[in-house]
User: Which sequence fits this backbone?
């Protein structure tokens, strides 16, 4: 396996009719909408809480810590950039206080649209916000759900800690990589071989 080097994945353009969407209220934060990145036709969809930073203060593209950790785990278990499409519950990065429940509910409509069009083979929710929003249950958490595949809304779904949690709490790193291995193994056994 080649050495790992994080890269900036191509961004999927936001649909023209949604670029100025203001339903969630995050358009007032001055951040742009990010529809998704990676391979739009990928069999594995990774869902984060929000798109985070894709540009630095000078507006230059860079690979943030979340993406570095995510890409490192994917690489370690043998998944390629072509296998993955990254999206998020919120489509804009929040930069100050906002109505979290309202914003998440509004933006989930965009995620449902993506799911209907893309029909991924497998979903990986990273972090409690993604888990609670996608599982439609505010009481769910990564700790109790990780380590197995769930059927959620008709999609095979795995969960793992958020990459930033892993960076802040190194004791979660081995669990994070275990869950990526679960995803890679399930994908290899049920899509690559069986599909």
Assistant:
């Amino acid at each position: 396996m080649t050495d790992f080097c994080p890269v900036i994945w191509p961004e999927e353009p936001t649909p023209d009719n949604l670029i100025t969407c203001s339903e969630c209220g995050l358009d007032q934060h001055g951040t742009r909408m990010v529809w998704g990145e990676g391979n739009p036709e990928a069999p594995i969809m990774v869902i984060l809480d929000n798109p985070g930073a894709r540009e630095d203060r000078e507006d230059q593209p860079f690979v943030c810590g979340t993406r570095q950790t995510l890409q490192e785990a994917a690489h370690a278990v043998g998944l390629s950039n072509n296998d993955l499409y990254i999206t998020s519950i919120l489509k804009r990065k929040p930069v100050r206080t906002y109505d979290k429940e309202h914003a998440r509910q509004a933006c989930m409509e965009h995620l449902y649209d993506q799911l209907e069009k893309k029909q991924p083979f497998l979903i990986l929710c990273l972090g409690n916000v993604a888990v609670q929003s996608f599982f439609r249950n505010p009481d769910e958490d990564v700790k109790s759900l990780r380590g197995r595949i769930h059927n959620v809304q008709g999609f095979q779904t795995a969960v793992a800690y958020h990459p930033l949690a892993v960076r802040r709490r190194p004791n979660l790193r081995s669990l994070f990589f275990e869950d990526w291995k679960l995803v890679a193994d399930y994908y290899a056994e049920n899509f690559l071989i069986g599909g």
In short: The first helix runs from residue 65 to 76. The helical segments are 65-76, 100-118, 128-134, 142-145, 163-168, 173-192.
